Amino acid sequence: MSEFSLEVLPGGIPTMSGGTRRGVKLDRSWQSDIIVNPGRCPFEDEESLEGRLIRFYQEEGGWRVITNQFTPYHNHLLIMPMTCWSKEDLRTLGGLNKITVALRIVSDILAPIAGERWLNVYVGATAGQNVTHLHYHLLEPAQRILSRPERDVAGHFASSLLVLFELEGFRVVVGGHRAGQCFIVPLEGRPFDQSAAESLAGVLQRIIRMFAEKFTSSQGLPPDFQINVKFIKGRVVYACFIPILNNWGGTEYLALMEGTPITLPWPHEDTLGHLLGR
Ligand SMILES: [Zn+2]
Q1: Which of the four, 116, 126, 144, 162, has the lowest number of CB atoms within 10 Å?
Q2: Digit-coded pLDDT (tens) for 23-49
Q3: Ligand 1 center to residue 43 CA distance, Å?
Q4: What CATH number has the domain bearing residue 52?
């Protein structure tokens, strides 16, 4: 094998990339289009929503916050628009205004909460979306049971050279366990208030748009993706964007237990070069 590189990431699970695996690939014959079926939507079934409504917001067509019934997590809320969206709207999270409303609701809920919370949203089946009515999860993560070698995720990625862009107090860098993954780190520790929510929405929208432009598959689909944000004391610690550009093989699943590296289909440098048109 020639010229592969190894990187140990926060959490201790390393990645390997390079060698003969270079250059982004856009063939995703395994990706399915999103099928929205409002007639069978569990989030529009008034009976199943009974007693679960926590808050209601008028903005952008109306949004509600409900409790999640099936979860091992404490304080697991779902934040969602009132109705199912088209697959085109899903793939952009509804555009800037709707991302902003969702994040403002998060800011509102987090204001009195000092503890850790995670925000997750999935678009497309390969990214983990199993109900096609858009919904953000906001939950208290499980207690950590293992100590890990290094957990300063934000510090690790803040010093990365693979910078995609900086916008409104956030730096976006390419890196992580998956090809195409990006980390969003705040450049200053400001509270996640309404204006910070707007800033983060702008950053997310720009990333989603870049990936839709540059990583639409040869079959014509923009990538499925997930977004995850970690908050502590009402501040963003970091966020990440994960487009689903490849599938994991046996070597990746065994790596989680064996301490061997997760193998990337191409190096993060190639993702960055492709996104920036170099
Ligand atoms: Zn629906």
Answers
A1: 144
A2: 999 999 999 999 999 999 999 988 888
A3: 5
A4: 3.30.428.10
